[in-house]
Design brief:
The structure is a single chain. By secondary structure, the chain is mostly helical. It folds into two domains: 149 residues, HPT domain (Four Helix Bundle (Hemerythrin (Met), subunit A), Up-down Bundle), CATH 1.20.120.160; 188 residues, Hypothetical protein af1432 (Orthogonal Bundle), CATH 1.10.3210.10. It is 66% helix and 2% strand. The protein has a two-stranded antiparallel sheet. The chain is elongated and about 65 Å long.
Length: 366
Amino acid sequence: MSHFACKAFSALEKELKDDLLECYVEAQQEIEETVNSIESDGFSFDKLDKLFRSLHSLKGNCSVCFLDPLVGVLHKLEEIVDGMRGGYIQYHAYLGELIIVVVEKVYDLLQQIYQSHVAEAAIRDQLQVGLDAIYAEEDDSKRPEMASTLLRQCNQITEEVIKEPAATPLIVKVNYSDEQKNDIEQFIGFSQKLNRLLGYSSERSERILKLCQLINVECKSPVDPVQLSAAAYMHNMGMALILKCKEDEDARFQAEQNHPLVGAKLLSKHQGWDEAVDMVKAHKERFDGTGFPEGLVGSLIPQGAFILSMAVMFIDTVWGKSGSEYNKSAMRAVQMVNFESGKGFPPHLIESFNAAIRKVLVAKSK
């Protein structure tokens, strides 16, 4: 019987791999509950959307941890559920059962890799081939029977060779002009002072900046790294207003809603940072239009604002305010960011985020 390996995954720290398994089980339970709810209480778009996002989070976590052979299976399952959301694939009990079984089988393969560094290629390949065929089938009425057939199968074919990615540097060098460098030094001082006043770690801004730059280099069309640096340091400046309304909840809420505008206005007092100003102003906007302060949607939001927002979500989730120890596991933070695909963030930038985190994990494992 042939096997496949995921060397880069096996090289990761045990703590990260344990986190992945724990997060997988939680998402698996959520998927089973959602499918069971559809079966018992009826179909709804909200349930399908939740199912899609849970699968996307599973896929994102596996992608970040170099489990590429499993990512392909989960991606095709995700596409089938997306077809249900789009109305061109009809939900059927066999398809619902197949979702649960595939997620279980992938977990079995994940445990095999975790315990012995290899897993059975035949099972993975049969799942991939079967799901590919179900998704590609043009006659939707045939899909339930195809799902039923796949449920009875799990046998054979080839071994997949996984190459360990080359190590990549984690420091992104940004070249500033003398004038820009002077401004950046000021911005660093502002952010350090505000972080202290708000109770954050003094390292928060640097962590956010480094992750922003790593995400940015993974983008097909990166934003200006100089402008992104200024936005990373200055994005939270408007939160200084919070300090003046500690006892007034209404005033505090209003200050939180307005802080991107206030921060952007403060940054605009320095010449030459127009792109950074737009990033700061929009970093609380959401891809689906439910953000603030202006409720912008989609491409109206600068790419740098999304990059900044993803980095802030990850760093603040993992490190919390103190920054002295992990608040939540890195995998939970990855899962949270991936869950926002198509809602808070554009899907293509989620892929850039995942690629950046992979680099971090490789460096950490070495």
